[in-house]
Design goal:
Layout (H helix, E strand, L loop, with lengths): L7 H11 L7 H21 L8 E5 L5 E3 H14 L5 E6 L6 E2 L9 E9 L10 E9 L23 E7 L3 E6 L5 E6 L4 E6 L10 E3 L10 H12 L10 E3 L4 H11 L2 E4 L12 E2 H14 L3 E3 L16 E2 L1 E4 L1 H16 L20
Parallel strand pairs: 3-5, 11-12, 11-13
Antiparallel strand pairs: 1-2, 3-4, 5-6, 6-7, 7-8, 8-9, 9-10, 13-17, 14-16, 15-17
Helix pairs in contact: 1-2, 2-3, 4-7
The structure holds 6-O-phosphono-beta-D-fructofuranose.
The site of 6-O-phosphono-beta-D-fructofuranose has 9 residues, from loops.
Length: 360
């Protein structure tokens, strides 16, 4: 028996005692989110046995085919989090509009934003998926009796908590409440998340990057420059070989980066110019940016820090570059150099980025 391990509830209560700025029922709200993740973990792990795989036969607000598990996971969050009295409203990838807490339940001072099943195209092939969540306070001028979408449109720097559950070989919960990042592993025998990874820190240096390379021809020059330098390895200006990974599940990529460093890019591209990026700001980029920042990494659009982006709509997309600090800063510099004209590949055949004469 594993007596003495800290479960997530004990962790939250201690955290709340340490940080009086987290008022009222905050830890109970996270406990409700944790219960949602346990329920989703159960559905994901039973897969075909539970008849939950396959398409729902509808599209979500993003125009993406909804999986049955997308819908079930969304319902799990609503079911476990709507009645506790901690929330005024919720918003998710799977719902076009916000979900105000129904009037039969008390309403609280927090807002919950979530992606109930991120990377869900992986689910039918039995690969890792996850849930991502972010907790915001209702703004001062919010009418708790009639919350509106604008109440959610706060920069990521105002998040009070963020986390994800990774449904992988084991189920893990990774959480920050603004003072470091903690990883818990689900012990299925006792149904509890136990603290297994205290104080996660991302190493500032890395030799590993993750990007969907099939989009290369659509990338902007700073990203093309960065990736081509990584690919050049020891023979190029980086002077070291890089490894590349792509799971196509953001939760799994961020988790790998928390465990062993690395950089993840889903940058702006020209594949569909109506979209400034693929990933969603409120329930993918912001919570991951808070986690990565709390673990000493960095998250950027290439042009500004993700946590500073002022949201204009609930389902807004944003370019995402996150992970090991030195790499993200380098990629930000490449964006700056491109914009100021310092980096103009191919302008001069002798002195451009791709010639023998460049030596930085
Ligand atoms: O929508 C989110 C997502 O599934 C992420 O989890 C993942 O990083 C990305 O999309 C995968 O994109 P692609 O289909 O281009 O590989």
């Amino acid at each position: 028996m594993l007596c003495g391990r800290t479960n997530v509830n004990k962790f939250l209560i201690e955290e709340q005692r340490r940080n009086p700025a987290l008022f009222g029922d905050f830890s109970m709200l996270i406990s409700d989110v944790v219960r949602s993740c346990k329920a989703i973990a159960q559905g994901v792990s039973r897969g075909s046995l539970a008849g939950v795989l396959g398409d729902e036969g509808r599209e979500n607000v993003q125009g993406e085919a909804q999986k049955k598990l997308d819908v079930l996971a969304n319902q799990a969050f609503i079911h476990h989090c709507e009645w506790g009295g901690h929330l005024a409203a919720m918003a998710s990838e799977e719902m076009e509009d916000i979900y105000p807490i129904p009037s039969e339940h008390p309403r609280g001072k927090y807002l919950l934003v979530f992606d109930p099943l991120d990377g869900s195209s992986n689910i039918d092939v039995n690969l890792s998926v996850g849930s991502i969540f972010s907790v915001l306070r209702c703004p001062e001028n919010c009418n708790a009796d009639a919350p509106i979408a604008a109440d959610f449109l706060q920069p990521g720097s105002r998040q009070v908590a963020a986390g994800y559950a990774l449904y992988g070989p084991s189920t893990m919960l990774v959480l920050t409440v603004g003072s470091g990042v903690y990883g818990f592993t689900l012990d299925r025998d006792i149904g509890e998340f136990l603290l297994t990874h205290p104080h996660l820190v991302i190493s500032p240096e890395t030799r590993e990057f993750a990007i969907n390379a099939s989009n290369e021809r659509f990338w902007e020059p700073p990203v093309q420059r960065y990736v081509s330098e990584c690919l050049a390895g020891k023979t190029g200006i980086r002077g070291k070989d890089f490894n590349m990974r792509w799971v196509a599940s953001m939760v799994a990529e961020v988790h790998r980066i928390l465990m062993r460093g690395g950089v993840f890019l889903y940058p702006r591209d020209s594949k569909d110019i109506s979209r400034p990026g693929r990933l969603r700001l409120m329930y993918e980029a912001n919570p991951m940016a808070m986690i990565v920042g709390q673990a000493c990494g960095l998250a950027s659009t290439g042009r500004e820090r993700i946590l500073d982006v002022l949201p204009t709509s609930l389902h807004q997309r944003v370019p995402v570059i996150l992970g090991s600090r030195d790499e993200v800063e380098r990629i930000e510099r490449y964006h700056r150099e491109h914009e100021t004209g310092e980096d103009q590949p191919y302008k001069s055949p002798l002195f451009s980025t791709r010639t023998l004469f460049r030596n930085d």
